Amino acid sequence: MSLDELTAIDLRERIAARQVSSTEAVHAAFEQIDRAEPTVGAFISLFRDEAFARAQEIDRRLAAGEPVGALAGVPVAVKDNLCTRFGATTCGSRILENFHAPYEATVIRRLLDAGAVIIGKTNLDEFAMGSSTENSGLKKTVNPWDTERVPGGSSGGSATAVAARLCSIALGSDTGGSIRQPASFCGVVGLKPTYGRVSRYGLVAYGSSLDQIGPLAQTVTDAALMLSVIAGHDPADSTSVDERTAPVADYVARLDEPVGGLRVGIAPAFNAGADESVRSALDAAIEVYCGAGADVVEIELPHIDYAIAAYYVIATAEASSNLARFDGVHYGYRTPNPADYVEVYSKSREEAFGQEVKRRIMLGTYALSSGYYDAYYLKALKVRNLIRNDFVKAFERCDAILMPVAPTTAFKIGEKTDDPLKMYLSDIYTIAVNLAGIPGLSIPCGLDPAGLPIGLQILTPAFSEDKLVRIARMFEAATEWHTKKPAIVG
Amino acid sequence: MQQQIDADQVRKVAKLGRLELTDAEVEAFTEQLGAILAYVEKMNELDTTDVEPLAHCLPISNVFRDDVVGPSLGTDNALANAPQRDGSFFKVPKILDDSSGA
Amino acid sequence: MSDLSYKVIVGLEIHVQLATRTKMFCGCALSFGEEANSRVCPVCLGMPGSLPVMNKQAVEYAMLAALALHCEVASFTKWDRKSYYYPDLPKNYQISQYDLPLGSGGYIEIPLEGGRTKRIRLIRAHLEEDAGKNLHTAGSFSQVDLNRAGTPLLEIVTEPDMNSAAEVRALAVELQRIVRYLGVSEADMQKGHMRFEPNINLLIERAGLQFRTPIVEVKNLNSFRALERSVAYETQRQLDVFLETGITMQMGNKSTRGWNDADETTVLQREKEEAHDYRYFPDPDLVPVTTTPEWLDEIRSRLCELPVARQMRYVGEYGLSDYDAGVLTAERATAEFFEQTVVAGADPKRVCNLLTQAGLKLANERGCDMSALGIAPAAVANLAQMADAGTVSATAASTILQAMTETGKAPELLAEEMNLVQTSDAGELERIVDQVLAENVQAVEDVVSGGKKSKKARGFLLGQVIQKTKGQANPKVVSEILDRKLS
Ligand SMILES: [Mg+2]
Ligand SMILES: [Zn+2]
């Protein structure tokens, strides 16, 4: 068998029905990894022996008639900024290259409880800071559709692993588009849940008020299945919302039920900034919804042009503080010969952090420093409020907003590395969603003339993931784009 | 309100962030941060006089835990990742200025 | 020099450790004296991906203290990160409260001589987490122990309202009494539960002109003695420096000094207030605290009369001395026990003597408070009444009190059993007095003659009577009979 033929939910059903064993599924995953991983470089670490041992355990449980979870036996990959008790948790950084967490992320616990087989941890931009995975301090990952191009980022390893069928389904994290944009670049589905929907405990923080963990999958159904497993209140995360405030639904159960009387909102002026091929794919997607009976509403997001400015202040301010703990004192890399304890900090950090991480620490430190706080950080929080209100108002007139995920398809490796601002500006369509805290989903909606995948972004109000996945599923059911695969899948 | 960042400010910020930048980095960051900050100042086009700062999108407050003892890691687990240890302690070069600000 | 006068001006920053079981943001037990780095978890080690969750008890203790200190308790408060790099601070930021402290304003009344009080105003009271400890005793390197990291602290900042070392001490003692009364802190100085940082300078008047000396902050004092001495030392030192150099307070010439316990001096740590840039910003890992009126009322119901008010009342209402009132109000359990005995009918002065001379000693020996001695306030009131009535002597009362704690028996019963009942029966005593007088003719003569030996002889006769009754005669009654017979 090959993972290419099966989605996670199919695989899980066949494993549960004992038509296929988990061991076979894991074998298929590693067969493809052996073939394609040397080319794409999706993983920082692989747990071959552990994965087979776990698959055998799942198979044994099934044979014994013991209960198994929603992902029983399914090979899963997780981004390497999620703490695991096994292996290292590196965040793609040399400063954590040998860090072995003595605890695990809540989502990891939930995956394991659901019977998932974690086969490896995927590459990312160092500390999730980037849009291309080129900022990894440990590894190079390429786009499976075109090895000259980036897979997007920062969850580039997870997107690549799913696109190249090295696993069935994967977890990423999204602070400013880090799930949706690589999903778009790699032709897979990526879902960023509402802020507070999924526990951040054990996710190494980049921008704490923006970060959310979410699935990257071959289909909307798989993304919904994964969301059902990881969503829900966690007492260890004060910012995870309790059941009373926002109950968790079974996101798979009503997935095939189209949303009646659907009003989709579009912001034509905003979308005009995208490449021609991206715009025409978006137009075609809007047509698909019209064909399904949806009304199109023109909306305005008057402050969205300021999202990148506000985001790069807020995210870097939080990051500068979140990354202060990497100092060579209690864990992680320490400079070999510090002259004094201050050099333990300044040299360890200088030697082990990459350029992008340093740049963002610098920017965030500056924005919070005395004399600049009001002009940058406080101003950005106010702009954030305006942007959130834009969405609140827009959702009074529509059920979902459609827009591009990124202005372009996957760009060439090295194309933007010399100009950080240019790289930041490419996050224009994803960033506002994190500032507003709302859920967003990226789904394949076309191929550009070079044959590279294009993503459609769908946004819905806070805590309406149940609706979001159904709206996405309407598109998927009416199109074939999700069945397109890169040649490397074979 | 164009605030240009110069090399001295970059060095000062690097010190605050405990980054011992090379001269080449100082030069590169001066230029790059200058460009980013110039872009960020686009926010000043917006009048935010009556806008509340939004630090958090969540509709919740008062998230507590009960005062109940949970497991600690124990010394060996706590020190397992330490770059250097001395018995039960993390070990660091001698701290001369006792300037903790707690 | 003769026209020079000065006064010292002191404001205090005080960190009080709260008496929770666990740390501020994680479930690690608070510890003292355990193996280094044994009471730590991913959260208080600041490990990547770990997240803080507020300890409700700590927040409620802080609210209770803020109410007792007459602070305004914020209806909305939040957490901020205070950034600085130091090995005892694992995240390199401290979770604290910056612009919206839990409590603001308020005051503490401190007792002065002669039953007066002085009101010291407070600026704020906020919650924060403690850092760990750096140790520098190992030789060429330093050691870091994070057991203390994350311990909940209440930071209280006063206005510069204190004008003597004695007032500073009084404030510290009073705060210790208050937090102990409320049960929000053990306030054990030996364990570092209270740490003080006074800001000290002088206001000098010379030749009709006013001068202010540069402010000095003395770091981390953890005993009343060190606190008091450091203020006294700084007062003299700053006066000397001023007379020598004439330097006065200016922007940026605040300095930080450490306390040298051995020679009781302060030592310069930082000349100029180094441009600290703490980069405070709201902690995105925590949600705000909103205090509803109902919640505040519930906390308010746990308040009690504060020690200084009690002390003043004991002096005014019961006529106790300042000293005795201070002893009885030092701990809430003692004061409450005392008041219960008064309600049960004991004379306040009598029971005060009984408690300060016997009860507290017993409690001390047993390491418990009055309420845990196993005696009922009503029984102690009975004992006090017996002493008042002369049924037992004051000394016997103390003995009986101890026996009560050991046996749980009633004082009347114990007085009988232990043969401590005094004979006040005038008829019976008169018979014995007559007998003694008959047996000691010479002494009687000495008394009656009123000579040099009179006083001594009278004492001898009294002693004889007491002896004949095996110590059970009420000396007051015997004395009256003797006076009557020998006049
Ligand atoms: Mg403090
Ligand atoms: Zn802990």
Descriptive labels:
heterotrimer, A: alpha/beta, Amidase signature (AS) enzymes, eleven-stranded mixed beta sheet, B: 102 residues, alpha+beta, flat
Helix fraction of chain B?
A: 25-40%
User: Which strand-content bin applies to the residues of chain B?
Assistant: 5-15%
CATH class assignment of the domain at 3-262 and 440-489 in chain A? Alpha Beta
**What oligomeric state do these chains adopt?**
heterotrimer
Describe the structure concisely for a colleague.
The complex is a heterotrimer of chains A (490), B (102) and C (487). With 490 residues, chain A is an alpha/beta fold.
Please describe the topology of this protein.
The complex is a heterotrimer of chains A (490), B (102) and C (487).
Chain A: H1 8-16, H2 22-40, E1 43-46, H3 48-63, E2 75-79, H4 106-113, E3 117-122, H5 156-163, E4 169-174, H6 180-186, E5 189-192, E6 212-217, H7 220-230, E7 263-266, H8 268-271, H9 276-291, E8 295-298, H10 307-322, H11 341-352, H12 355-368, H13 373-394, E9 400-404, H14 420-425, H15 431-436, E10 440-447, E11 453-459, H16 465-478
Parallel strand pairs in A: 2-3, 2-4, 7-8, 7-9
Antiparallel strand pairs in A: 1-3, 4-6, 5-6, 5-10, 9-11, 10-11
Chain B: H1 7-16, H2 23-40, E1 64-65, H3 75-79, E2 85-86, E3 89-93
Antiparallel strand pairs in B: 2-3
Helix pairs in contact in B: 1-2
Chain C: E1 4-17, E2 54-55, H1 56-68, E3 72-73, E4 76-77, E5 80-83, E6 93-96, E7 103-104, E8 107-111, E9 117-129, E10 133-135, E11 141-145, E12 152-158, H2 165-182, E13 194-206, E14 209-212, E15 216-218, H3 224-245, E16 255-260, E17 265-270, E18 281-282, E19 289-290, H4 293-300, H5 307-318, H6 322-329, H7 332-343, H8 348-366, H9 377-389, H10 394-407, H11 411-417, H12 426-439, H13 441-449, H14 454-468, H15 475-486
Parallel strand pairs in C: 15-16
Antiparallel strand pairs in C: 1-12, 1-13, 3-7, 4-19, 5-6, 5-18, 7-9, 8-9, 9-12, 10-11, 13-14, 13-15, 16-17
The complex binds magnesium ion and zinc ion.
Zinc ion (ZN) binds at residues 23, 26, 28, 40-41, 43-44, 150 of chain C.
